[in-house]
Amino acid sequence: MKNEESDTTSRPRNYVAQSRWRLIYKALKKEASDERGCISLRRFKSFGVLQQRTLDNVPATATGIWSQVFCNDISGFSLNIRELNQNPSASELIGFDNTGNVCVWPSEEILTYYCLKNASLFRSKSVCEVGGGMTCLAGFTVAQVSDAAEVVLTDGNKTSCQNAEIIATENKAGFGSTKVSVRKLLWHAKETFTDLKDKFDIVIGGDCFFFDEYRQDLADAIAYILKPGGMATMFAPHRGSTLKQFQKIAKQQFDTDLQEIYDQEVWKRHLKLTSAEDGDKFYNEDIHYPLLLNLIKR
Fold first, then answer.
1. For the chain, what is the mean pLDDT?
2. CA–CA separation, 115 vs 72, rounded Å?
3. What is the 3 state secondary structure string of 147-173?
4. Under a CB-based contact definition with an 8 Å cutoff, are residues 92 and 238 in contact?
5. How far apart are CA 44 and CA 21, in angstroms?
6. 188-247 confidence digits (pLDDT tens)
7. Cα–Cα distance measured from residue 173 to residue 199, given in angstroms and rounded to the nearest whole number
8. Distance CA 74, CA 248 (A)
9. What's the CA dihedral at 276, 281, 284, 288 to 10 degrees?
10. How far apart are CA 164 and CA 157, in angstroms?
11. Taking the CA of residue 268 as centre, how many other CA atoms within 13 Å lie in the half-sphere pointing to its CB?
C-alpha cells in the first residue's frame, strides 16, 4: 500500500499505521454488502477455484459462521472453517493486524489452491504460515492434504489466533500424523519467537507486503525461522509498488523468483476476468491478481 502522507519520517510508525487504517476502514465501509454479513466486504471476492457452502448443521453464532471449503478440481478435500461474523469498527481495524479478520482475501484463496495442487512439496516438511488471518486457510489445507511433519499457523492478531484454534479443534481428525499448532507471531518482535530459529523447511503467506513499515520486519522474520536453504512461498498482488519493494528487501537475504504465470487454471480465470466481453468490472489486476514470489534462504 502506497504511503500517501506527505511527511511520515518524523512520526511514530503507530501513527502512520493508524492513519492508514482509518482510510482502509472508510473504503471497507463503503464497499460493505450484507450478502453474508460482514464477510463480504469487497466487490471482487473470489477467483472461484475453491468452493464454499454454509454448514446448516452448525448454527451461526453472534461471533462466527461455519462453512465448508472444498475444491471441485481435487476430490477428497474439504475443510470446515469459521469466519468471524463482525462489522469491524475503525478502532478494531487500527492495530497489528486486523485485515485477516475482515475476510478471506484472494491471495489466501490462490495460495490455498496452489498448496492443494502441489501438496507433495510439503510432505514430511516442517511448515509455517505467516499472516494467516482468521482462518489460516492455506496452512490448515497443508496440514490436511500433504502429510507434512508439522504445521505452525501464525498471525499477529489475537482474535485471528483464537479463531484458528477453534478451527484446528474442529478439523483435528483430518490432520493424521501432522502436528498442528497455532501461535501469535509479531514480525517486529523477534524476542517472542526465538524458539523458532532455523526451524522450518517452508514458510507460506498471502498478501503480507502492503505495510511500508513492516516489510523489513517480515523479511527478517522469515529469514530467522527458515532453515538454511529453506523456501518461502508467498503470494501477493502488485498493489502499486509494494510487491517489488518487498522483493528488493528480500534479496538481501534470499534468492528470489517472481512468477506471474504459475498455474494454468488461475491464469485462465485471470484472463477471463480482464477480458472485454466476459470481464468483471470490479476486478483490478493491480490489487487482486496474486503473483508467486519464491524466496530461498541463503
1. 85
2. 15
3. CCCEEEEEECCHHHHHHHHHHHHHCHH
4. no
5. 20
6. 999 999 999 999 999 999 999 988 999 999 999 999 999 999 999 999 999 999 999 999
7. 25
8. 35
9. -110
10. 11
11. 5
Q: Which grid coordinates are listed for 113?
A: 489452491
**3-to-63, 208, 242 alpha-carbon distances in Å:** 33, 16, 10
Judged by DSSP in three states, 266 sits in: helix
Cα separation, 257 vs 132, in Å, equals: 22
**pLDDT beyond 70 at 60:** no
With contact defined as beta carbons under 8 Å apart, do 16 and 8 qualify? yes
Task: Give CA separation, 142 vs 43, 102, 111, 136, in Å.
Answer: 28, 22, 10, 10
Yes or no: say if 206 and 107 are a contact pair by the CB < 8 Å rule: yes
DSSP 284: -
> Residue 175 is placed in which grid cell?
490432520
